[in-house]
Amino acid sequence: MAEQQVSWLDQNEKLLPLLEKPHLKGEEWYVIDHRWLKQWKDYIGANDVPGGQETNYPGTINNENIIDKTLDPLPDYGHFVLHNISENVNYSYVPKEVWTTLKNVYGYHQMHPIKREVVEMGDSQTPTIELHLIHVRLTRIEDRNNLDIAKDKYYSCKVTIDTVCQDTIKLFDCKGVKNYRIWSKYKKWTLLKGKYSLDQVGLKDGEILYLETTKSSSFDCQKQPDILAFQNGTEEEPMDYCEDQEMDNYDEMSVVSPCGLSNMGNTCFMNSALQCLVSVGTLTHYFVSNKWKQDLNKSNPLGMRGEVAKAYADLVKEMHSSAKQMHSVLPRQFKIAVSRFAPQFSGWAQHDSQELLAFLLDGLHEDLNRIKDKPYVETREADGRPEDKVARDSWKDYTKRNDSVVVDTFHGQLKSTLVCPKCSHVSVTFDPFCYLSLPLPQIRNRCITIILLGKSPISEPTELHVKVEKQGRILNLCESVAQAANDRLPKDSKERINHENLIVVEVHSGHISKIYNPGDAVSMIMDKDYIRVFELAAVERGVPRDKYKLIGVYERVPAANSYHKSFKTVGNPFVLAVPIEINYDTLLDMILVRMKRYIKHSDKIEKFEEVNKLNGESEDASEPFALRLVNMYGNAQVAEMTLKTPLKQNENVQYVALDWESDENRKFFLDPHEERYVKKEDAPANLRVKDLQLNDCLELFTSEEKLSESDPWYCPKCKKHQQATKKLDLWSLPDILVVHLKRFSYCRWWRDKIDSLVYFPTKDLNLKKYVLDPSIDEEDAIYDLLAVSNHFGGMGGGHYTAFSRRGTKWVNLDDSCVSRIAEESVVNRSAYVLFYERRNPKKRTLHCN
Length: 849
Ligand SMILES: [Zn+2]
Fold this sequence. Notes:
Layout: H1 8-19, E1 28-33, H2 34-43, E2 91-95, H3 96-106, E3 115-121, E4 126-129, E5 134-140, E6 151-155, H4 161-171, E7 179-184, E8 190-192, E9 207-214, H5 227-232, E10 260-261, H6 268-278, H7 281-288, H8 292-295, H9 307-321, E11 328-329, H10 332-341, H11 353-367, H12 387-401, H13 405-410, E12 412-419, E13 426-433, E14 436-439, E15 445-453, E16 462-469, H14 474-486, E17 502-508, E18 511-515, E19 530-535, E20 548-558, E21 567-579, H15 584-594, H16 602-615, E22 625-630, E23 637-640, E24 653-660, H17 663-669, E25 692-693, H18 694-701, E26 705-706, E27 713-715, E28 720-722, E29 725-732, E30 736-742, E31 744-746, E32 751-753, E33 758-759, E34 765-766, E35 782-792, E36 799-806, E37 809-814, E38 817-821, E39 831-838, H19 845-848
Parallel strand pairs: 5-9, 10-11, 14-30, 15-19, 20-24, 25-33
Antiparallel strand pairs: 1-2, 1-3, 3-4, 5-6, 7-8, 7-9, 12-13, 12-29, 15-16, 17-18, 17-19, 20-21, 22-23, 22-24, 26-29, 27-28, 30-39, 31-32, 34-35, 35-36, 35-39, 36-37, 37-38
Helix pairs in contact: 6-11, 9-10, 9-11
Bound molecules: zinc ion.
């Protein structure tokens, strides 16, 4: 089993700390299947489980699930890795020393290790493991009409254009070449400079490069080689990697053409926020047309010496002016300016796009505040004035100190009403807002689909959809499953299920990946998980709980194409409760009984058993199968089983494989279709959780709440802190309404992301019923969606993109990549900040008063 003996404890002590090493430029790291690595960590006792347990023995390293099998491995690089998989979910990195030891101790299933180098990436030159090479298609300029002869090559992003040119010359066997140069069609036919590396010129995956050669020593100046003829030609356009080839009608885009923003390493949060803001036509026009210069306020102590406004203006202009020549710009100066005044955004960690937006809206406002000397304004109580007068007066007071393009565009007014529970004093204030932070109503229940396997060996597996509380335990899931199953039975049926006999098992591609305990949280189950629930039979046979143990049972057949005899799992594993003291024969019987539903020729199996018994322990070629102890995943044998003491007493769950002598053997005895069971139906509509509407969030935002003990209100009448009731209402609305969906909850003990789909309209959002100001007509309360900042992934990381409407078309702005997107795709569960535009924009009357 083990080629080299290094104890699990040694592995724990020597290898584990190495996994935490920083990535240093030039180092070699190896890619390894994450599930294997996790299992190995369990085995060496790294994951809060006692080390050295045989059931956790990880077996041979196998990278099969992460390898891109469509590409041949390269020497000194190994296999290509699939693109749609994630670090620490599908794969992980281990440093060279760890890889070498693991490979020696456990063996490796594939021929080629997946070796990757650490290179300095991005503008920040952060050392990063280069997981994927850049795919480049090379061709000669004269072959541009025949892309079939283009050659596919894969390069590190550190390779220079010169190297690529020389490779192309070699590939196409160009003779007598004195000079050469290479063109990028994607970059609107620009020449790429030889000394730059692929990442410096921003080469994209799948890009086609065109080599031009000459037999004289220099080219005829910068003349493009018949490029115009090519562009206007009738031949089919070469396929590019971004779906922005449809982006033909730039002209109809108002004010701004979509220009991407390069990622400088974890700066997609910034790019996403900026793209939303740039979508606001009036604001962009204000900067592009230099109107901002008149308003620049360098002396405002609340501002940032005008530097943030200036950096933003420069960026917007660059994005605007370069849109025809370039596809993306690098917001480096802008980031530097922001980091200077808001150190929380410096460094290269991922941040929150909404926090940056809030900072930016405030920063731009103060940098462009037309009020140079802010007058002192006293806060006033209503004192019996009519409500709309109070609202108007407080807006006037506010604009005495705050007057900027940001106020004109983004600021509205909230009405806040506080009622003292003791003296019933009512306090009404009107406060400006720059964006709305809307809470998401909690969805308390979720629907889980499971396959129930009843204890009767001949009963069919049943698919059940059950509703459970999101915060519930596995015990609650078992209760729901038992109830759902029993509801289908007559009241006095003997088949009724006791939830205590149910065991919940997660199965992943034919392997048991987790056996849940009753106290485990339901939230550990993901929607996509394949959950099987087994009803244990032994419990009702009167065996006390401490006298039986769980075993997981795999079926295996000999693996094809393997040098030494090994087995692969087939069918669906199952779980049994068996008495602790059990012998080989009884165990085999129990397993065969459990498989009874799909065993054919059971008479023949009995005959085999007779023969075996006669032969005792001696090897018998006619034996159709044998039981072996295996690890949890069924992919490595941990011990032979003898006829006398098959199971260990000390381990909680053990795993047994029924190894068939041959695949044919298995096919002879089993009905091969029986045990395969896939999800058939979606959950019925009444169990499906209703999608949230934006209105639900607005209702919650405007609902009355009682202030908490830790956050009381000072009642001016009682002169005491009181737990008042508070209600917020929208009083007036801005032209651009920014809506922040509070997906991240920060509690004292936990932080979480709510990734429920909130349905929000892309057109005709009518806010009339929420707006209290009577002077606002219905038509002034109609909004259309303008932009969305999306957040994908979990807390403290993930990826940000923006959707932006340009005219009537929607574009997806994913860092430097710009592509068309259908309006239907804009509403998605990653939507995080929404920008709505008033259909009839107007200077607010309040402001003009
Ligand atoms: Zn009071």
